[in-house]
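FAQ

Q: What does a record look like?
A: Structure on top, sequence underneath. For example:
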C-alpha cells in the first residue's frame, strides 16, 4: 500500500550571496548649497531613468582593494576616494582637484574649503581640456590620476567627507557596496570661474541630465512623482535638507545679522557637525535596507543592519529611522518618506519584546534570503521598462 508523501518539505537551499561590487558616490554641494543629481539613461543596467548622485564602480586603476570576502573591502580607502572623484568628473565634468603648484591645504577650522583661501588652489582648465579628458579617461586611454598630474593638479581626496556606506540587500542579483561622501565646492568668489561648477551630462553615455537643486526641491519632485529616487538618495537628501536651505543671492543679511555667504558657511558647518554625531557617527554607518514590516502598499525598510557581509562585526547602520517606500516595478518608487522606527513598531511592545520582534523578522527574512519581491521586481523592472 502506498504511503502518503511526507508533508514536511526540505528547506530551500540558501542561494549564493551575490558579490557587492565596490562603488562610490558623492553628494556634491554647490557654492549655493544645492545638491547635484544626474538622471540615468533608460538603457542603464541599474536604476534606469532614476536620479542619482554622481558615482559608480571602483576601477582597478583607482587603487588596490582587499579581496572579496575580506570585510576591509567595505572600509573607506584611497581607492574609493579616487573612484568617487573620477566618476564625478566623467559623469558631470566637474573636476575636484587642486593646483599642485600652489596646494597649501588651506582650510577652515571645520575642514571644509574656505570660500576665499581655496580660490587659488583649484585646478582651472578650459572646457575643451575638460571635455577631452573626460572622453580619454572614460575610454581608458589614460589613467585619471596621470591625466590630472599631467595638467598640474592633485586630486582633492582630503576634502571628501564619508557620509554612510550602503550595501544592497542580499536578495538583489546586482549588488553594490557604495561609499557615500560629502564634498563642498568653494563658496562663490571672484577668483573662481563659475564655469568650473556647471555640470554637464556625459552626452548620453550614462546620463541625460545633470542639475543642481536644493535638497528640499529634489524631495518635492520625488513626492510629486516627477523624478524617481531610490531609498539611499531619498534618505540622504532628507538628512541634508535639514541643514542646507536657500540663502539670499546678495550680501544682504538674513534677518539674523548674517550675510548670504555667512549663512551658507554656517549651514555647512552645522551639517559637518551633524555627520560627526550618532552611534556610530554618520561617517561610519553602514546601511543595508531590509523589510521591517508592511503598511498598506508601502514597505517599511529598516536601516539598522550593515548587510550579511558585515554580520558579526562592529559595523552598524541607523537604528532610529526607517524609510517608507512603495516599489512599483517598471515605474520605480512612490510614497517615499523617512520616519522614526519607534513610531512604526507596535507601541504596546516592551523594550525586550521589541528586540524579540525584530529578531523574528530578521530570521524570517534570512530564511527566504530577504524574499522582498516588491523590491527585486522594482530594480529589475527599471531595466525591463526598455
Amino acid at each position: 500500500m502506498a504511503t502518503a508523501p511526507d508533508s514536511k518539505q526540505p528547506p530551500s537551499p540558501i542561494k549564493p550571496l551575490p558579490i557587492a561590487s565596490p562603488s562610490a558616490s558623492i553628494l556634491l554641494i554647490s557654492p549655493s548649497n544645492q545638491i547635484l543629481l544626474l538622471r540615468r539613461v533608460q538603457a542603464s543596467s541599474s536604476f534606469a531613468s532614476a536620479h542619482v548622485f554622481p558615482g559608480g564602480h571602483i576601477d582597478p586603476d583607482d587603487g588596490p582593494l582587499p579581496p572579496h570576502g575580506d570585510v576591509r573591502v567595505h572600509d573607506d580607502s584611497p581607492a574609493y576616494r579616487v573612484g568617487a572623484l573620477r566618476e564625478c568628473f566623467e559623469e558631470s565634468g566637474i573636476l575636484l582637484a587642486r593646483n599642485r603648484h600652489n596646494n597649501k591645504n588651506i582650510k577652515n577650522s571645520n575642514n571644509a574649503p574656505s570660500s576665499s583661501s581655496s580660490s587659488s588652489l583649484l585646478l582651472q582648465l578650459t572646457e575643451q581640456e575638460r571635455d577631452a579628458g573626460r572622453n580619454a579617461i572614460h575610454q581608458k586611454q589614460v589613467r585619471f590620476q596621470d591625466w590630472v598630474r599631467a595638467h598640474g593638479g592633485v586630486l582633492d581626496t582630503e576634502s571628501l567627507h564619508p557620509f554612510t556606506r550602503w550595501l544592497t540587500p542580499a536578495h538583489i542579483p546586482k549588488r553594490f557596496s557604495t561609499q557615500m561622501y560629502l564634498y563642498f565646492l568653494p563658496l562663490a568668489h571672484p577668483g573662481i570661474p563659475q564655469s568650473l561648477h556647471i555640470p554637464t551630462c556625459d552626452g548620453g553615455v550614462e546620463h541625460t541630465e545633470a542639475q543642481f537643486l536644493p535638497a528640499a526641491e529634489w524631495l518635492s519632485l520625488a513626492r510629486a512623482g516627477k523624478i524617481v529616487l531610490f531609498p539611499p538618495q531619498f534618505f540622504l537628501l532628507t538628512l541634508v535638507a535639514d541643514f542646507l536651505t536657500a540663502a539670499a543671492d546678495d550680501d544682504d543679511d538674513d534677518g539674523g545679522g548674517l550675510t548670504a555667504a555667512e549663512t551658507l558657511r554656517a549651514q555647512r558647518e552645522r551639517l559637518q557637525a551633524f555627520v560627526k554625531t550618532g552611534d556610530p557617527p554618520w561617517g561610519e554607518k553602514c546601511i543595508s535596507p531590509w523589510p521591517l514590516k508592511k503598511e498598506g502598499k508601502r514597505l517599511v525598510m529598516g536601516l539598522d543592519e550593515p548587510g550579511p557581509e558585515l554580520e558579526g562585526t562592529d559595523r552598524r547602520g541607523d537604528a532610529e529611522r526607517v524609510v517608507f517606500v512603495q516599489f512599483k516595478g517598471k515605474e520605480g518608487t512612490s510614497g517615499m518618506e523617512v520616519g522614526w522606527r519607534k513610531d512604526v513598531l507596535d507601541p504596546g511592545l516592551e523594550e525586550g519584546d521589541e528586540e524579540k520582534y525584530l529578531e523574528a523578522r530578521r530570521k524570517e527574512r534570512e530564511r527566504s534570503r530577504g524574499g522582498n519581491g516588491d523590491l527585486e521586481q522594482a530594480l529589475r523592472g527599471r531595466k525591463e521598462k526598455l
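Q: Is there anything notable about this one?
A: The two ends are 56 Å apart (CA to CA).
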